[in-house]
Description:
Elements: E1 7-10, H1 15-26, E2 32-34, H2 38-48, E3 52-56, H3 64-72, E4 81-85, H4 89-96, E5 104-106, H5 112-169, H6 174-198, E6 208-211, H7 213-229, E7 236-240, E8 249-252, H8 253-269, E9 277-286, E10 291-298, H9 326-336, E11 340-346, E12 350-358
Parallel strand pairs: 1-2, 1-3, 3-4, 4-5, 7-9
Antiparallel strand pairs: 6-8, 9-10, 10-12, 11-12
Helix pairs in contact: 1-5, 2-3, 5-6, 7-8, 8-9
Amino acid sequence: MIRRRNILFSFDQSVESRRLYNYLKTRGFSPVLVEGGTADIIYRTSLKHPDLVILYDSPPDIDVQEICKILKGQIETQSILILVLDGKDVKAERLEAFGLAADAYVSRFLPVEELYAKIYSLLSIRQLQIQLLESEKFAALGRLADRIAHEFRNPLTVIGGFAHRIKKKHPNDPLCQEYVDRIIREVNRLERIIDQVTEFEIPARGEYEYVDLVKLLREVATEFVACLRKAPGKDVVFEVSENDQIPLIRASIQGLKNVFKNLFENAVDAIPEGRKGRIQILTGLDAEEGILWIKVKDNGIGIPPEELDKVMDPFYTTKPYRIGLGLALVYRHIRDMQGRVEIDSEEGKGTTVTLTLPLILKAPLPSYPKR
């Protein structure tokens, strides 16, 4: 299963390029066409940071060697895959000597099915590499979390305990009460942070069982709306779409609840005051890929393009009252379920978070009545 997006396609108007472009679209991809020359390809690649750049070496205004040299020579773009469709091995050897070659060179005259298989293989390998790096990052954070819990919990318990004793001993001192209340609030906040951090060391809580996904989404949304009513200032409507095609899935109910609560909280936070908030929760199936998906869409302020690659990093946040673990925890729980998380956003218009989970379960699907 790979992400079906983020391909920059150098279109040269030839029969071969038109055939491959149309084939990619039929397979669910949405390639972004670039019909300019070398400078335009380099600029658009640096701007959009696609997963893959497909280059045809035939147009006279496209210099594959220059494109590879610049893109592979910059830290910001060197991890972007480049596939050259020309089959001229001499160029590949010349570039590889400097470590600035494209990732693959293939004849443009191969059958379109073989070209697609090569593209799919490149993207699949890159996705596995990214998952490995992310696994190492979260494993390191888990070890840090264990150390934090050990070193900080006991001192915080002592501080909190003494603060409560001082509060009881000086009930008639307003200034003392104010200071002690502030200490207690900060101790509680730090303990919540430790609880969140240590989640990285613990898999999704609860036994795996069969879950009615749409029903669970509706329950969590209802609970969340009830909490919102107690905190005036937000006018938000939740819409959970019905879908009788979604089968029961085997998962941790508590883990999924934590995922949805974090997503709903982020969506609500993104809606500015004075705007009528609308959060849509959609579900669907992709039988060909063997997955089901959940989309959480909001009409909030959106995320700037330069921030999109950072939002799932632990402790990254633009909100002073958050610690930046919500989406990181979402990623950890969904990854433990062998799924993935994708985020699309348009600044000023809103954000869509897509969760995908495999349909293959460890046990046969039980029969159950339709909702």
